[in-house]
Amino acid sequence: MKEIRGNVIVGQSGGPTAVINSSLVGVYKTAKDRGANIVYGMLHGIQGLLENRVVDLSGHIKSDLDIELLKRTPSSYLGSCRYKLPEIQEDQEIYKKIFKILDDMEIEYFFYIGGNDSMDTIKKLSDYSILNGSRIRFMGVPKTIDNDLAATDHTPGYGSAAKYIGSITKEVIRDGLVYDQQSVTMIEIMGRNAGWLTGAAALAKCEDCEGPDMIFLPEIPFNIEDFMKKVAKLHERKKSVVVAISEGIRVEDGRYVCELTDNVDYVDAFGHRQLTGAARFLAGRIARDTGCKTRAIEFSSLQRCASHMVSRVDITEAYQVGGAAVKAAFEGETGKMVILKRISDDPYICVTDIYDVHKIANIEKKVPREWINEEGDYVTEAFLSYIRPLIQAELTPIMADGLPRHLYCQDHRNE
């Protein structure tokens, strides 16, 4: 007989991915299958919880079709937030409020799907819970296209974003060959301090495509004058030059390249400045100095919402980490995050495990220096061997009237 458990609550936080809702389904379905009474969803994460904005997910996920639709729906079904909890010693009142809300809802298990900042939330809530003898278990479910979470081999969301970047880069390269004239196309890819996404542009290099000519990651200081010389040298042997850069590339003095031209005013609750414009700045510099045709392309949010091009490996693992978090919490774990451990590349085998969230929160995993070439303008074969298994296979969208069908949270319409 299935054991009846207490109530569960799950939230989504930070930037979305194409597969984050597969993790949500993994939490919901595993919790219900293991006897959870009610599975609640926070609307807009911990910020929504503080405002008592929650829903009973049983009223949203009513059938197997809903489950399949939600797994294929991009962005955060429940809505997201970038809300930084204060240190416990600085403001206990906010924690008292959160735990009163959770106690009033008879919550026993709390799951948060997110990246570095979300794991900071899990760390603080689990610490407060232990200090005050609460019965609630807190578990982190990894998510981020940035792939910068410590301890885990990779993060759900990254494989699909990499698949999109590799595919679109191939198409951009093909487009650049149309006209018989010198040109430079600058591709700007997300990545504040870690170049995992930008390095994925190298996937475009294969038997039917020569790939981008240069790739610049934020791990290596960017020298504008050296870059200009490299572009000129490339133009000596070819007309169309395509360069992929991280939005977070910085010059030697630490300034972001995008700050050299544009004012970057927006700063989120965690102190992160919105980065954009590096490709435009460099394209403008090339056009001004050389007179050749230039174009700046920002993949922007397209990288994280392209559910029509998800990796089957990615969406499957996203579901698995959600389920693994529930299993661990129901077995008594708290203050942990589910991680992925790679057993082998060929055949690709990856399993789940759990890891202390205190050793993950606020720690950024960067691309190893040995995975970047000596010149600092491309990634190595070791990087590509790491990433290729993560982009394999596809999951076809459920189509309606020629377009992908998604599951939409009706409660957002009533806010």
SSE layout and pairing:
Blueprint: E1 7-12, H1 20-33, E2 39-42, H2 45-50, E3 54-56, H3 64-71, H4 92-104, E4 107-114, H5 116-131, E5 137-142, H6 158-176, E6 183-189, H7 196-199, E7 214-216, H8 224-235, E8 240-246, H9 278-290, E9 293-298, H10 302-305, H11 312-330, E10 336-345, E11 348-356, H12 381-387, E12 399-400, E13 403-404
Parallel strand pairs: 1-2, 1-4, 4-5, 5-10, 6-8, 6-9, 7-8
Antiparallel strand pairs: 2-3, 10-11, 12-13
Describe the structure.
The chain is an alpha/beta fold and 415 residues long. The chain has 2 domains: 7-154 and 309-361 and 390-414, Rossmann fold, CATH 3.40.50; 158-305, Rossmann fold. Helices cover 33% and strands 18% of the residues. The chain contains 12 helices and 13 strands. The chain has helices at 20-33, 45-50, 64-71, 92-104, 116-131, 158-176, 196-199, 224-235, 278-290, 302-305, 312-330, 381-387; strands spanning 7-12, 39-42, 54-56, 107-114, 137-142, 183-189, 214-216, 240-246, 293-298, 336-345, 348-356, 399-400, 403-404. A 7-stranded mixed sheet has the order 3-2-1-4-5-10-11, sandwiched between helices. Strands 7-8-6-9 form a 4-stranded parallel sheet, with helices on both faces. Strand 12 and strand 13 (403-404) form a beta hairpin. Helix 1 (20-33) packs parallel to helix 11. The longest helix is centred in the middle third of the chain and has 19 residues, at 158-176. The model has no long low-confidence stretch (mean pLDDT 94).
